[in-house]
Design brief:
The protein has 2 domains: 142 residues, Response regulator (Rossmann fold, 3-Layer(aba) Sandwich); 133 residues, Response regulator (Rossmann fold, 3-Layer(aba) Sandwich). Helix content is 40%, strand content 20%. The protein contains 10 helices and 15 strands.
Length: 331
Amino acid sequence: MVLLLRAFVVGALLMPVAPLALSQPAPAPRQRVVIIPKLVGITYYDAVKSGIDAAARELPELELTWTGPAQDQVEKQIEMIERLIPTRPALIAVAANDPVAIAPVLAKAQRAGIHVMSWDGDSRQREFFVNLVDFEEFGARLVETVVKEIGEKGELAIVTTSFTAPNQTSWIDAMKKTIYARHPGLRIVDIRPAGESTEEAYRIAQDYLKSMPGLKAIVGLGAPNLPGVARAVKDAQLAGRIAVIGNSTPNLMRGFLKDGTVKTVLLWNAPDHGYLTVYCARQLLAGGLKAGQPFEAGRLGRFTPRRDAVNLQVALPVLVFTKDNVDQFKF
């Protein structure tokens, strides 16, 4: 009996013992960020989204959702944000179609504990703004480009998207200030909205060319609008006689730059704008953004927020496309 007991004890001691399972901390939940453009389905915002997707791959702690209206209407954006609020994302970043009309629903989102940013189109209600470019600089650069092409005197007309789009109204204000201060021989004779429609911009530009014989330049604001203006000038066989200036993407304007209808296109790097918006969202969620304190934005390097009339913003540099460099850019 003693021998059997001894054998049992020895056998038990020799049996392999399963290691104690160490409890692993649960991974931190991903923070949901919703990014809303002015509208979806146009090539410009497709380019922006490519930058957003690139940043998303680098920041797995964020769960990114891209969603927007099919028309550039602030009412559609308001409806979308109303539906988002009960789902409690960590942050909403919106390219506002109207800076004033959208403010109440963004304030409602903040009261629900949701961080709010604006990008592309600014809002009166936001914690941070990821600007396209500095408004004053961009408006001034548009005017200086007009002067370079037509000289110090002449009439120009503007095709914009709307009279409420905050970036374009700010550019136009800056254009007027620059003309008043530096180039009094220039005169803006008309401004008309085309929405985000190449065909409407084409129609407006055709009317300008028929009804304004003294016109020397047309400024097209909005990526879909400048190609419409350029096509109207080309079809009227007025390339070289009517200057076409504005902002659009290199892919949309490449042909017009190569054939001489357009000499200069101003913009910013659209994919970089999407990329920077994501990194700003991450910084706001991680520890906040402060004036004068730089933060790292991935491959773009450091950006330093500055104060503005609402709170803080950063901006991208202006890009200039010509026939000589347009093939370097693929968006």
